[in-house]
# Entry
Amino acid sequence: MRKTRPGIEKHLDSVIYAPSYIRLQNFLHDSNFKYYRIPMKFKRIELFTRIFHKLPLPFAPKAELKIKNFDIYPIAQTHLDAAWLWSVNDSKVRAYKTFYAALKHIKEFPYFSVSMTTPQYFNWIKRYDPEMWEDVKKAVANNKIDVCGGMWVEPALRMCSGEALVRQRLYGQLFNLRNFGKISKVESLLDVFGFPYSLPQILVKSGAESFWTTKILWNDHSDFPFSNFIWRGLDGSEIFTHLFKFQIGSIVDFGLYKKIGRRPNAKGLVFNSHNTLNDMNSVLTDDHVRTLGWFYGRGDGGKGPLFTEIQYMENFAKYFGNFSKGFKHTNTHRYFQILKEDVGDTIVTWDDEMYLEYHRGCLTTQARVKEGNRKAEELTIAAEFLNTFFLLSPKFGDFVYPKELFNDCWQKTLFNQFHDILPGSSIPEVYLLTWREHNYVKERMKSLLNVRVFDIITKLTNNPGDILLYNPVSVMNDAIVSDGKSEHLIKNMKPFSLIIINQQDLKNWAVEHKGQLQVESLPSSIRVENEFLTVSISKNTGNLIQLNLKNQNRVMNFLYGERNSVRESSEKLVMKDNTIKKHKLRFKGARINAFKEPMRNGQPYPAWNIDHTYPSHPQNVTLLKVPKVKKMDTKVTISSTYSMKNSKVIIIYTIRANSDVLDVNFKIDLQDKKTLLKYFIPLNLKSDQVRCEIPYGSITRSRNPKTEMEEGKWEYGMQKWVDIGDKDIGLAILNDSKYGVSATMKGISITLLRSPHYPKDLYHTREIKIDPKKRPNYTDLGIHNVRLRLIPHKDSWLEQEIPHKALAYNNPVLYTVLFCESPITLETSEKTLATQPSIIDELPVTEVLMPKITSDHQNIIVSTFKPSEWVSRGSEKYQVDKSYEFEDYSLPESPDKWIWDKKTLIIRAYECGGAKISTMIRLHNISETKEITAEEIDLLEYKIGKKLDVMRNMANNTVVIHTEFTPFEIKSIRLTIK
# Structure
């Protein structure tokens, strides 16, 4: 070690210990040499300062001893948030500066290479600076820029639909293929707030071989015990996973890697959140994996690595290079190859979701954004289905598929799923753009659906007043139609069916199928009954106090009491038994709960986090007047109005004739800050499990936690439904655009709204579009409409097709009244669409014979039908514009130059019930001149699996594809039309 020069050492001490230390701290803060949530520590400042200025370390021997524990691989990386404390336009500038710095450092440091993620950022450079783009492509070709990750942006994984996650990978990886001739084999999602159980399958089937993140180390209740492990997904897919901290300051956490990087004592060990931490730690030896990646580079705001960071690494190498034979600069892809070799095959398997015990509030904050996301996803997929059907119909031979519009809408939707936009943790300026883009997507897709329906109408003969209904999803759906006087529920419309109802037929049917609705006013409640349900609402509280499912061997109130105890009206039992009366008086029923959200200990993330002590801070919710009953021929509504401080809530319960569901609608005027609203349903069900839908699957979570990790899951995510059920009976709750839920043995709560403080750090952004006097301080204040549907059911959630019903609930039937005859005079029958008489719910209808797609097995849900992103190489139009070729297919140079080759279509379907299934997928009403072959492909639509058997039924123009699904498998099938 070099001798210390006393003068410099004394001067350095004066810098560190003197008041000017604050300047150094500010410099390091601005350069991001710390985590935002951790105050700058003295040792970190001293370590950085001494190494940066090439000064000796008084603690060097101890440090050298620690460094000997590892083979360190410095990896330069960039991490930029697409929006957060700055606007999207600011992010574009930051992306430019990030690429500019990377290219500059590549020239200045011969050994330097940098790992960069997010195709959206590359696309910005390609669009705005063609000259820089050429330099970027050269750097990628020379392995100086290592293209990592494969998603369009780093999304909020738990709130994206399964198909949206596939599109994130599809469009991201195809961008890499188009522009660089290769895909990323390492998915990098450093800062995402939790990872669904279905993600490994999506990653593996879209080209990923490894996965790394750091976020799970933010857990606030239990420490995740493994740094290197195999992550096994819901379907059994497996991917090598690395978990550790990043940024240059992570040097102070190397000791943590020595703990969580320990090797297991045996092969084949499998763990999940139902194991205790002691179970997991007990199998780890004292021997740890030596290979350690030191990912450095300014994070969140981009621009990294900074010049000072690279210098720091150079000086660090001079200090410690001799003590660490592996101290060698590398990139992410190469590091994972080295790490896998070191880890070997003695590695634990994590067979569960990767739940983040932090940022739980992100499932609820910014309700309007979450609603926009759900609607944009569903409408775009529905429009894709209908437009793809048009490609198969000879009646629309001049139809041009609007690929450019779909690309635009998908990219806007995917971009706004970024993990600080969709979770609600950005500044207000960000949401001005998000709301506008969500509205753009919704309006364009609605318009596109209406245009296609109009195209169909022009090829039909009809009578004025006829009703045209279209079911936009691949499952049974219900429609509510009007005959001018009353609403009528038409049940079980077939998948993608397109029907015409004559008004007179509807009126005649309505008379015979009016259904029975009985309303009874009891001393303290209002009771409503139909054929399937008995529902009671308290007059004193407005709460739902009885929900009985009829037509059972017994009648049971799902909401309270012991099983088999409620034989008649609970009101009558109150009159007979004082014990039951006391219980009745204590029982509050299903209700809205309000809580004040405390932000203790200077919590820096109010938009992100729900404080776990919130149940200790209830707010008064007061019923303003006796519930109002409105009875119509075919439905009854009961509305209750509540107040809480400055806010107002109206809850409307709706029960329809012939319906086995209870709709619960909320009209909420939220005007109270730091408020959390939940709808609580006390349950008379013994199961200690709750099943929640996740992207392309479902998962069970515990209502009665027994391990540390189960305890940490006191608020978790769902997609469109949750279900709690005993062996023979259960309750499903469907939602429209809600994602947060919690459950205990007392019942289940759907999180409706919260109003935390917006992030405050406006000094990060240059684009402030809101007048400071009008600037909102709290999110979600204002008027909201929320929809839930309660489905009490017999048997299991799967037998009752709850995933199907939730999909239908989020995709209502398109309803059009035909006020005149067809506006185009049809000269020949060739221009008309064929129709046939049919029966739906005993109602005579006319079915339009358009192409559609169905599955024979209830477990298989067809989720996507679209043209392939690839085109046949034999198509002359693509001989010039092709940018990448694979076997018989080419990838057009730009998505906007794509034109359908009239040959290739993609079906995507998934198994929703966890069973091995053999089934038939059927294409109906296909032209008899078309010959079709089918083969399995990956999610990128180009690597081929096995060929599938295809049968043709010429009598009814149906193509039948035989295929098999493993439990929870996502399967893509390419159809080739010859």
